[in-house]
Prior knowledge:
The structure is a single chain. The protein is about 35% helix and about 20% strand. The radius of gyration is 16 Å and the shape is elongated. With about 110 residues, it is α+β, with helices and mostly antiparallel strands. Helix 1 (about 10-20) crosses helix 3 (about 40-60) and helix 2 packs across helix 3 (about 40-60).
Amino acid sequence: xxxxxxxxxxxxxxxxxxxxxxxxxxxxxxxxxxxxxxxxxxxxxxxxxxxxxxxxxxxxxxxxxxxxxxxxxxxxxxxxxxxxxxxxxxxxxxxxxxxxxxxxxxxxxxxxx
Length: 113
């Protein structure tokens, strides 16, 4: 097996990628979820995307590391914009494609305050 050059992605950068690119949150909402300002979230996500692009384009391994952290919740709450049905999804399962009640694709995560 080839030995790849490693590039480091911090836990915060990984979380910003998850919130923005996987969950589809805005910089405002992503910053709120991470407890940072919109501008700080924007800087974190910009750096994270640069690191991932470097790894993909230049064939580098991504090493995710850095810091002590705690997962504070194990599920997320979603609501359907069509029928207003609310349901929970386990953390890490990705964004639901449709409402389980009416199958409408307009679903939104309810952010905790």
